[in-house]
Amino acid sequence: MQVVARDKEELVSPTTISVDTLLTRCHVLLNELEQFQTFLIEHKKKHTVELRQFRNAVGSELKSLEKLAEADPTAERTIHTLRSSNFPFYSAVWAAAKSSTGLVTFNKRFYWDTPLARSSERAGKPKKRSALVDIVAQDGEEWIKVSTITENRLLFEKAKAGWEGASSSGSEADENGTIINGIESVGKAMNEDEEDKVEILKMAYDLQKASKVTRIRYRHPKIKFVLPKISEGHIPEIDTILAEIRATGATVQCASDLSAPESLHYPSHINGSTDSTLSLSFSHLLIDPFSTFTPTLNIDCTILLALVSDLSNAHVVPEPRYHRAIRRQIDLEEKEQLLPSSLWPAMGNHELVCTFEAAKRMREIVGLIGTDTEKVRAELLLGEGENGEGKTAQELTEAFDGTSSYEVPKEWNLPIKVVQAEVDMADLPPVAGKVAEHLTAINRSVFLFGWARRLTTISSNRTVAKTIESLIEGEKGEEVVGPDIWLCATARSLVGKEKGRRE
Asked: Angle 310-311-317 (CA atoms, 0-180°, nearest 5)?
């Protein structure tokens, strides 16, 4: 999908800015993007942010400006091309992105279904409507729309659309941002006739519709408009439009709300790795998968098994007797060490609990097919049995370290405390009953307990997590927030799982 720049009219005036200035600024922007890409690679986060499309668009603009620099600066075509440059928009998008957190992607389109459009009624094919989001941030939970439209252009569009609006003396907004009096009636009229809407309001309504059919971890994404060339509180007609945007539920940042991020001013060629200052500048853009974790973590049986498995703690040589799932996990462990790269960072120094049912199931599996070392780890993990009972947290950690090929973090909070999963369904939303019907006894104990106690549950059971999410998000009416589940990317079985045993 091609990046489309908008609001180019009146953005660049040849009397106030030269093509050389734009060219220099475009070089700086592209260099910052390349440095960010290097930063992502160094931190093994290359695939967490989709940057390529936006970077390519800026690169194409740089080539256009380079050609423009060789043209006659007084020629009408040169002046028109300079006025129409996409760079101010790209610069505003990058500035907004650098002010965000948990960056995901740029220029992503989200869809919603609508009735047959006039143009497609004859063919009998439904037309799928969409909204273009310039920046997806906060790990998907925030949509940012950037518009570099000027006040003059916005007033022109308003007049062209024939939208009179209400005078500033007869319109106001309540404390929740709901527009009342004159503005409310305008909003209704504009909702009914999209052809007469000011373009930026069309964007607001389209984003609102797309957000209503999109959920990220049970919630609808929040929408934010960034308008760096619009000032609030000076022109009543402009304020009326801003109020209408806010009436859709979006937040709006105008020029006075924005602080220009400092440019990093890199040289025109980038080599080598990023320095510590740059890492600090970019670090907040990375998604922190643990930022919403609760102080106490609820550990699923799948994670208990992964923690004690030889596959996670030692170098296991593949043998023909091993089930194919075990051989796959051996290969995965060679590439990505599960405990030091994922589970230990996730658990940190949090207090750890698991339900009685999860612990019981783990003991049964370890007792049935676990190796001697896996049985020792299981006792250390829960602080029980011959190897774990009576030991302090430090002693348990040190003993576990002796059974693992990896250095066990000293802050790891052993033992994992076994608790009774007492859940009063009255404490949960009505949909919890439907969720419970689709879960086994052990999964009810783990996931409903975490939900009821408002705990983050760590699991590798993707099927169950997605089933819960689907059931909750499928409910109509009020938005319901389900259990907070952090899914570990891969699972680990016990090495004793033989070839003939069911996966």
From this structure: 100
